[in-house]
TrEMBL record:
Keyword Transcription: yes
UniProt keyword terms in alphabetical order: DNA-binding, Transcription, Transcription regulation
Start-end of DNA-binding region: 65-84
Protein name (database record): Transcriptional regulator, TetR family protein
Superkingdom of the source species: Bacteria
Start and end residues of each HTH tetR-type domain: 42-102
Lineage of the organism: Bacteria, Bacillati, Actinomycetota, Actinomycetes, Micrococcales
Region called Disordered, residue ranges: 15-43
InterPro entries attached to this UniProt entry: DNA-bd_HTH_TetR-type_CS (IPR023772), Homeodomain-like_sf (IPR009057), HTH-type_TetR-like_transc_reg (IPR050109), HTH_TetR (IPR001647), Tet_transcr_reg_TetR-rel_C_sf (IPR036271), TetR_C (IPR011075)
UniProt-listed PANTHER family: HTH-TYPE TRANSCRIPTIONAL REGULATOR RUTR, TETR-FAMILY TRANSCRIPTIONAL REGULATOR
Originating organism: Frondihabitans sucicola
Amino acid sequence: MECVKLRGTMQHGRILSVPGGDMDPVRRGGAGDGKRPGGRSARVSASVQSAVLEMLVTVGYTRLSMDAVAERAGVHRATLYRRFPNKAAMIASTLSQLTDEVIPIPDTGSLESDLSLLVVAVLENLRGVGGGIIRAFVGEASREPEVEAAGRALWEYRLGLAAAVVRRGSARGELPDDTDPDAFVEELVAPIFFRALITGKEVDADYARARVLRQIDLARSAS
């Protein structure tokens, strides 16, 4: 079974990992068209990004410090403080970089298959850095305007990519033309987030597929 990963992210954990399926890579546009500086600067940026994301998962926002990130990333403290005035700016920058990554989007020709692959990716993400980021926003990070804005932009971007899968399904006649893609995605993933992050109930591939089938049936019956 093939495993397609989001490129250029963490060294310890995955942002997005989808088993199997034909994937359509999508890059987030933005300033500089997603280009990164080369040489040592690029290596430092990658190391800091990896360290920040890993520590959001392992220690959370409150206990994460710039000194600890510098140590984990293997960079000098002065280098980090030259780049970022404070912890909030560092984390906001890291989240903003994630919207420039290449993200594989399933395009198998079947709405059910595409959504099942996406939901499995959501589960993998919630068990790693995605869950850490969400917990950070539920806590102290939501009080930092820079971090909150970057986080919202990241999740809106990710949900927008999933909504594109729904639009393709509607165009193929698998869903009614008046299906709201954003509402469809929110209703699909909300129970998965609730189980994974709140109740701790089991969320496996069978549950994910059942959620997909139920959401498709609801959309069709609403027309």
